[in-house]
Structure formats: C-alpha cells, structure tokens
C-alpha cells in the first residue's frame, strides 16, 4: 500500500505541474489530454486504495480537492514516501 500512496502523491504533484505549465496551455488539446491522463491515473490509484484509505484523505479525493489531498499525504505519510 505504501507504494500506491507514494504513486498517488507523485500523480498529484504531476497534476500540479501540468496545471502550472504555461507552455503546455498554448496547445489546448494537448494540455487537456495531459490533464485527463493524470486525472485518470489519480482515479485508478484512488480506487486501489479505497478499502484501506483514511477517511479524511478519501474525502479530499472524492471531492477532487487534490491540493488538500497532497498536503495530507505529505504531512501524514512522509515516512513511506
């Protein structure tokens, strides 16, 4: 599970990087495709954690509050990442 949590944190960081990438926005179709791909990755990782996930983290992920989810992971799961 720690590997999945680390992968989730990395995917959340990747999403932030895509959002911040000004050059990527110049090609809107490519930018949207990158966002869609990383969002699907986050969804897959979330599904694999569903049975053992902390209620607060689940809440953040369910609500698509990805900044809060990443902050939670970095604060509470840093020992395994």
Secondary-structure class = mainly alpha
How many DSSP-defined strands? 0
The average pLDDT is: 90
Number of helices: 4
Largest sheet: none
Q: Helical amount among residues, as a percent range?
A: over 70%
Query: What is the terminal-to-terminal distance?
Result: 11 Å
- In the predicted model, the low-confidence regions spanning at least 5 consecutive residues are none
Order of helices and strands: HHHH
Rg over CA atoms, rounded to whole Å, is: 13 Å
Instruction: Give the amount of beta strand, in percent.
Output: under 5%
Tell the overall outline: elongated
Q: Would you give an account of this structure?
A:
This protein has 81 residues and is mainly alpha-helical. Helix content is 74%, strand content 0%. The protein is built from four helices and no strands. The radius of gyration is 13 Å and the shape is elongated. The mean pLDDT is 90.
């Amino acid at each position: 599970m720690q590997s999945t949590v680390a992968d989730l944190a990395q995917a959340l960081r990747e999403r932030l990087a895509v959002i911040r990438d000004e050059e990527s926005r110049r090609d809107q179709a490519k930018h949207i495709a990158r966002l869609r791909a990383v969002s699907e990755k986050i969804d897959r990782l979330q599904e694999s954690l569903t049975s053992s996930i902390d209620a607060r983290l689940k809440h953040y992920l369910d609500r698509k509050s990805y900044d809060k989810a990443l902050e939670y992971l970095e604060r509470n799961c840093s020992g395994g990442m």
